[in-house]
Amino acid sequence: LPVVAVVGRPNVGKSTLVNRILGRREAVVEDTPGVTRDRVFYQAEWAGKDFWLVDTGGWEDRVQGVAYRVAEQAEVAVSLADVVLFIVDANVGITTTDEQLLKVLRRADRPVVLVANKVDDQRGELEAAALWNLGLGEPHPVSALHGRGSGDLLDATLEAMPEEGRGSAVDRGPRRIALVGRPNVGKSSLLNRLAKERRVVVDEVGGTTRDPVDERISLGGKDWTFVDTAGIRRRVLQSQGADYYASLRTRAALDRAEVAVVLLEANEPISTQDLKIIDMVLESGRALVLAFNKWDLLDEERHAQLEREIERDLGHVAWAPRVNISAETGRHAERLVPALERSLESWDQRIPTGRLNAFLGTLVAAHPHPLRGGKQSRILFATQARTRPPRFVIFASGFLEHGYRRFIERRLREDFEFTGSPIVIGVRIRE
Ligand code: GDP
Fold first, then answer.
1. Does 231 contact ligand 1 (Cβ within 6 A)?
2. Most CB atoms closer than 10 Å: which of 47, 155, 207, 420?
3. pTM beyond 0.80, yes or no
4. Which positions in this protein are listed as binding GTP 1 (predicted)?
5. What is the ipTM of this complex?
């Protein structure tokens, strides 16, 4: 379900508005099995459409300063929400705290609905109109307390909600691949092998006339874009600083790609440079496929050794699909395609909030968070805030141990099969 977050400085009437929107429905909210939910997330409905309503006022913490909690609150809301309801007090106008909030909201690419609260009569509507100059579009005058204008506000909120399935793979064009690896692993040979007898279109990257040239290659009946193939085909001079430029180039390629194929050499030990390149991929948040090249040179002894090296050095990316190929002979090169598809599918995957919390509820019930100083952490709720790569936010009260977060991450990976994609887990703690 889409998530609507209610944001505003203290005392503008967030909770009153939340209660107004929920009406009597509030009592039947806690329907996710096993998860103790605090008064923060509510399931709401308007005009036949269900959504989650988040009262970020519940996150206001009394210990730190106003500026801190306002920024934090907005950040939480933005990381979660499909739509943000930004509430201001029409009687007071815009304060410096409102402006701080606004700054955070502006940076984020989310639809914002501007709510002018405490407009109890017609005179107040004039004051609300002054809020046009915030540049957030039409201010919606409401009285959360009396209900005035709340129907129109909800209509506007539904309108601001993104269409389901927006940005689906269909209209995105060919998926973008960065083929990376240290010099001489066979990137250029693999590219030539893949491009052989297939339609290759060379694109200049929009706007730049410099090096980065992409190639479109048709594989498995689909077009793919290999980014910065000029960087692969043009041999880097083995002079001083070549490593530095190669690594800049890798970074730039990753930046523009969706999935990385890290090419490694099967007949040579896994090197620190290989591991560095893998780290760069992990940092970039791109989907990952590992390809071991020059398989034709492998003998049995080296094969056994390689398996041991993989176990020792690549445990942290054990979730990435692995293909063993030879660019020279063409062996298994076609297996790259299903691996790429699998990884991108995971990278795009979105777990519905209900399923996620059902999973979490069962998990937490079966394996409770270990006590700390006799106290129990409570996992309140989780939601997937983003895809590409999947990013989850877990809300807990008190504390959440690093080890327990890793445990949740591992189980999420297994249960929802995030093969080939990194996943990110953020934690929000309520005192
Ligand atoms: P790049 O620097 O990663 O682009 O590597 P190249 O594609 O230039 O390959 C480096 C060397 O390895 C060349 O001499 C290739 O012929 C050789 N090579 C590439 N792939 C294979 C392979 O699968 N098997 C064997 N035997 N040699 C390969």
1. no
2. 420
3. no
4. 8-15, 55-59, 117-120
5. 0.93
